[in-house]
Design brief:
The chain has 160 residues and is mostly helical. Helix content is 65%, strand content 2%. The N and C termini lie far apart (89 Å).
């Protein structure tokens, strides 16, 4: 069994049984894990023997989703991103009305579109004010410092 066959089997076993985010996260995890183990010189057979067949791994993931209250029931529709979207789920992979332990920030809401640029502008103005104040102090005292340097230089050159 190749890495891609394992991942495809895992995705098929999870399809419609677990939220999109869970499917995506587990596929990424196992893809990276298998790559790391193969880079160490292990064979795919050794890795599968260690972690188990894709259907067994999927069953464990589905059971943990059910325990967390995130499992889906029935078949879902392919969402175009390598996962499946059940009709009774929101865009976050949990059923409507259920609470998830993971909190997502939806940065597409209108208030985020106002808050983020406002925060960036305030930060930029603050940084520019601090830098400007430093330059103001520097230039305020630059004249007397330059005059003292000139006088010192003249006195030093007159002694020669």
């Amino acid at each position: 069994m190749s890495r891609e066959e394992f991942l495809k089997g895992l995705e098929e076993a999870l399809a419609g049984e677990a939220p999109n985010a869970v499917i995506r996260d587990n596929l990424i995890y196992y893809r990276e894990y298998i790559s790391q183990e193969m880079a160490k010189g292990r064979t795919m057979e050794e890795i599968v023997a260690e972690i188990g067949e894709p259907r067994i791994v999927a069953k464990t993931i589905i059971d943990s989703c059910e325990a967390a209250g995130e499992a889906l029931s029935g078949a879902g529709a392919f969402d175009g991103m390598g996962g499946y979207q059940d009709e009774g789920t929101s865009g976050y992979g949990t059923r409507r009305g259920q609470r998830s332990n993971i909190h997502y920030f939806d940065l597409t809401k209108w208030y985020w579109r106002i808050l983020i640029p406002t925060f960036l502008i305030i930060t930029l103005v603050t940084v520019l004010n601090v830098v400007g104040s430093l330059f103001y102090l520097l230039f305020r005292f630059a004249g007397p410092i330059l005059v003292l340097c000139l006088v010192f230089w003249l006195l030093k050159n007159m002694r020669k």
